[in-house]
Specification:
Order of helices and strands: HHHH
Largest sheet: none
Strand content: under 5%
Distance between the termini: 63 Å
Number of strands: 0
Number of helices: 4
Number of domains: 1
Length: 91
């Protein structure tokens, strides 16, 4: 029983080995908050394009145009960051 308790406590003690990865709780919090922000922005964009006042197919408004433009910019940035395989072969 005592060895199980020692192993459990050892999981939470600071590691002295510099080669061992160090996880900072602040980094985890930033990742969680940034993920929430990105998910919220994606939800807002898609909701504005497809649902707001009947969607883009019913009536084009400024909100639809802005949301569509932002969506296109994001897709272009993602495409430029990691182009598909056929685009890599052409270069």
């Amino acid at each position: 029983m005592r060895s199980i308790w020692r192993r459990w406590v050892a999981l939470f003690e600071d590691a002295d080995d510099p080669a061992e990865p160090h996880y900072d709780p602040v980094h985890l919090a930033v990742v969680l908050v940034a993920s929430q922000v990105v998910i919220g922005a994606l939800y807002w964009l898609l909701w504005t394009v497809f649902v707001y006042e009947g969607g883009i197919s019913a009536r084009i408004r400024l909100a639809h145009v802005v949301a569509s433009g932002v969506c296109l910019l994001v897709v272009a940035a993602l495409y430029r960051a990691d182009p598909p395989e056929f685009a890599r072969r052409r270069k």
